[in-house]
Write a structure and sequence with these properties.
With about 230 residues, the protein is an alpha+beta fold. It folds into two domains: about 45 residues; about 170 residues, Beta Barrel (Lipocalin). Helices cover about 25% and strands about 45% of the residues. The chain contains two helices and nine strands. Strands 1, 2, 3, 4, 5, 6, 7, 8 and 9 form a nine-stranded antiparallel sheet that branches. The protein is elongated. It starts with a helix and ends in a 5-residue tail after the last strand.
Length: about 230
Amino acid sequence: MKSSLVSIAAPFFKITRSKQRSDAIAFLVPALAVLISAGFSVRVAAAPRSDPAPAQIVFSVDPSHSKLDWTLDTTLHLVHGTFAVKRGEVTVDPNTGNATGEIVADATSGKTDNDSRDKKMHQEILETPKFPEIVFRVNQIEGLTAPPASKAQIKLHGTFSIHGTQHEMIVPADVEFTGDHWSGAAKFVVPYIAWGLKNPSNFLLKANPTVDVELDLSGAQHLAAKMP
C-alpha cells in the first residue's frame, strides 16, 4: 500500500520541484538584471570627470620697466654696475612646471660710471664685442599655480650663459601678479672666476671672485594659444 502511495505521489513531487525551480529562475533573472543595472549605474556615476589641463601661461618682459644691477666687492671699495635688460619671454605649464624661454641682458650696455674700468670690463673681462648677450634660459619653474596667486615665491631652473659658457642655475624669485601684469625680483650670485672669466684684480686692488646680482623684471602675462 505504501509503495503504491509513493508511486502515485512521485509525479506530483516532480512537478512541484520543477515548478519551484522555474519560479526561482523566473525570480532570479530579473533580480540579477536589476542588480547588474544598478551596479553599472553606480560605476558610471562614480567615474571621475576629466577636467581640462590648465593652459600654458606666457610671461613677457618689458625691458623699459626692468633692470639688472650688480655689485663687486674689492679691497678698496664696492663696485656698482648695471646691464640693460634686452628682452625676455617665458612660457610655463603650471601643472608640471615645465618651461621654455629666456631672459636676455645686453652685455654691451654694462657700465660702472668709470670709463677706464668699463673699457677694461668690455675688452678684457666680458669681451662684449664677441659675446654681446648674457642669457638665462629657463626650463623649469617651481611654486607657480594656476591661476597664479597674487604673490608667490618661485624657483627658476635653467642655464646661465655668459662669455660663451653655460652654467646650470636655480634662481629664487619673489613675484606679484595683478590682472594681466606681473613683476618679480631675484637675487643671486655669479662665481665669475670659477666660470672662467678673467680676474680683474691687480697689485693694488683685489676683487671678490663672485658678483652679487639683483634682477628686477616687469611685464605682461597671457594664456598661450592652444594648438589646433
